[in-house]
Design brief:
- There is one protein chain.
- The chain starts with a helix and ends with a strand.
- It is built from eleven helices and 13 strands.
- The radius of gyration is 24 Å and the shape is elongated.
- The model has no long low-confidence stretch (mean pLDDT 90).
- It has helices at 5-17, 20-27, 31-45, 61-85, 104-118, 131-139, 183-187, 199-211, 224-232, 242-251, 280-298; strands spanning 50-53, 56-59, 93-100, 122-129, 145-149, 158-169, 181-182, 191-193, 217-220, 238-241, 255-260, 265-271, 303-304.
- It is an alpha/beta fold.
- Strands 3, 4, 5, 6, 7, 10, 11, 12 and 13 form a nine-stranded mixed beta sheet that branches. It has a two-stranded antiparallel sheet with strand order 1-2.
- The chain folds into three domains: 5-84, Winged helix-like DNA-binding domain superfamily/Winged helix DNA-binding domain (Arc Repressor Mutant, subunit A); 89-160 and 267-304, Periplasmic binding protein-like II (D-Maltodextrin-Binding Protein, domain 2), CATH 3.40.190.10; 162-266, D-Maltodextrin-Binding Protein, domain 2 (3-Layer(aba) Sandwich), CATH 3.40.190.
- 46% of the residues lie in helices and 23% in strands.
- Belongs to the LysR transcriptional regulatory family.
- Transcriptional regulator of the ttuABCDE tartrate utilization operon.
- This is HTH-type transcriptional regulator TtuA.
- One of its GO terms (molecular function) is DNA binding.
C-alpha cells in the first residue's frame, strides 16, 4: 500500500486535533473508518504513529515526522488546486510571507492592511524570523515569499532596498552629543550582538576584519526585543537597522545614530522558492509588498533599489 493523499489528510487532522472524535466530526468520516486508515498506515510503515490515551491521542516521534511531511504535501496540493481554479480578478488561497524580525514592525501591518482591502479572499500569513530561518523556510516551501538579507537569500532573489545601520544605546546615550558615529568608533562600543548566524553580526565581523579591529562584544543575545530590553537595563549597546529602532527612538525609549565613515547599510531582497510557479494570490501579495516598500522608502525608512 502506497501512501495516498486521503490517508495523509486523515492522519494529519487526527494528529493536529489530538482526537479521533473531533477529527471524525470535522472530516465527516466515522471513527472506525479513521482508525482503519491510521492502522493501515502504521502497518505499511511498520511504526506506531499515534499513542491512544483516555484523553485523546499523542503523536509519536515517527508520527511527528510523517505529520511534517504530510502537512507540506497537503499544502502543496491545496496550492495546486487553488492555482488551477482561481480567477484573475479575484485571487483566493493561502499565502505565507516571511519577514526579517527587525523589519516586521514597520513592514507587516501596511502589507496586511492593503491585502485585506484589495483581496479579502487571500489568506495572508506573516511570520517573523532570522535570516537563516527565512532561507530554510523558502527552501522547504513553507514560505511563498520572504524579505531577507542578500547574503543569505538565493542568488535569484530580487533586490528591494538598502537599510542604514544605527548604533543604538539607552535614552540619552547619543542625544545632543553627535549626529552620527564612525564605523571605527562603533566597533569599539560595548556591544550586545546575536550569534554568528545572524546577518548583522556577519556584516560587522567582516567590517572589523577590513579595519583590522576586534569587535568589543560584551553579551550575546538572540532576539531584537531582548536586546533592546538589555540596552535599556544598561547592559551594553548594539547595532541595528533603522526599522528596528525607529519607533523606540521616536518615543524616547532608546537613542540611536547612523553609522558613517563609511556609511553602513544592509541590502534586503525578495526571496521565493525556485522551480515552483507562484499562484495568482502569491503574485498579488508580491505586488502589494513591492508597493508598500516603495511607499515606506519615500518616507525615509530605507533606500529603494527599484
Amino acid at each position: 500500500m502506497a501512501l495516498d493523499l486521503m490517508k495523509m489528510r486523515y492522519f494529519a487532522r487526527i494528529a493536529e486535533l489530538g482526537s479521533f472524535t473531533r477529527a471524525s466530526t470535522e472530516l465527516g468520516v466515522a471513527q472506525p473508518a479513521l482508525s482503519l486508515h491510521v492502522r493501515a498506515l502504521e502497518e505499511h510503515l511498520g511504526l506506531q504513529l499515534l499513542n491512544r490515551t483516555s484523553r485523546g491521542v499523542v503523536v509519536t516521534e515517527a508520527g511527528q515526522t510523517l505529520l511534517s511531511h504530510s502537512q507540506a504535501i497537503l499544502r502543496a496540493v491545496e496550492q495546486a488546486e487553488v492555482a488551477t481554479r482561481e480567477q484573475a480578478k479575484y485571487p483566493t488561497g493561502d499565502v505565507s510571507l516571511g519577514v526579517l524580525s527587525s523589519l516586521s514592525p514597520t513592514l507587516c501591518v501596511p502589507v496586511l492592511e492593503e491585502c485585506d482591502r484589495r483581496f479579502p479572499k487571500i489568506r495572508l500569513t506573516v511570520s517573523e524570523g532570522d535570516s537563516q530561518a527565512l532561507r530554510s523556510a523558502i527552501d522547504s516551501r513553507v514560505h511563498d515569499l520572504a524579505v531577507n538579507l542578500i547574503d543569505v537569500a538565493k542568488p535569484a532573489s530580487v533586490p528591494l532596498f538598502d537599510e542604514r545601520l544605527y548604533a543604538v544605546g539607552p535614552p540619552g546615550e547619543f542625544s545632543g552629543k553627535q549626529a552620527d558615529l564612525s564605523l571605527d568608533a562603533a566597533l569599539g562600543l560595548p556591544l550586545i550582538l546575536p550569534t554568528r548566524r545572524h546577518g548583522i553580526r556577519i556584516l560587522l565581523e567582516r567590517q572589523a576584519l577590513i579595519l583590522g579591529k576586534d569587535l568589543n562584544i560584551v553579551r550575546v543575545i538572540e532576539g531584537v526585543a531582548s536586546t533592546k530590553a538589555a540596552i535599556r537595563a544598561g547592559l551594553g549597546l548594539t547595532i541595528l537597522g533603522r526599522c528596528a529602532v525607529y519607533t523606540d527612538q521616536q518615543l524616547g525609549h532608546l537613542s540611536a545614530v547612523p553609522l558613517t565613515r563609511p556609511d553602513l547599510s544592509r541590502r534586503l531582497v525578495l526571496d521565493m522558492p525556485v522551480n515552483h510557479p507562484p499562484t495568482k494570490a502569491v503574485l498579488e501579495v508580491r505586488n502589494i509588498l513591492m508597493s508598500v516598500i516603495r511607499r515606506l522608502g519615500t518616507e525615509g525608512h530605507w533606500t529603494c533599489l527599484s
